[in-house]
Design goal:
112 residues, Arc Repressor Mutant, subunit A
Length: 112
């Protein structure tokens, strides 16, 4: 299987990370990764979007450097890059997670 491209820790850009985190579906993915086991298959996420849209959200998170993805058989497993994010942008991930847990569900996210 082909390897998926991920930015190195030093290549993480604040604008790209914040843009990726601006979407409520992507914040939901990050929250589930933060609260769950290290490696989670894409199919483990109950998202209010189509499979193709879900694939897009995971790609945006991977390309921004928020998650790492790797193949395990025919599944793609996802891991939150918490240590890399904390090293590059101290406190950012925890602040986003805390704020996300306290915000009301987005009407847009529920419609998708």
């Amino acid at each position: 299987m082909r390897a998926l491209a991920h930015p190195d820790r030093g290549e993480l850009q604040l604008d790209t990370v914040l843009s990726a985190l601006s979407d409520p579906v992507r914040r939901r993915i990050i929250g589930q990764l933060a609260d769950g086991p290290d490696d989670q298959a894409c199919s483990a996420f109950q998202l209010p979007v189509s499979k193709s849209t879900s694939t897009h959200h995971f790609r945006v998170l991977r390309e921004a450097g928020l998650i790492e993805q790797h193949y395990s058989g025919t599944s793609i497993l996802n891991t939150l890059r918490a240590a890399d994010l904390e090293a590059r942008f101290p406190g950012l991930l925890q602040a986003v997670l805390q704020a996300s847990r306290h915000e009301a569900p987005s009407p847009t996210a529920e419609r998708l």
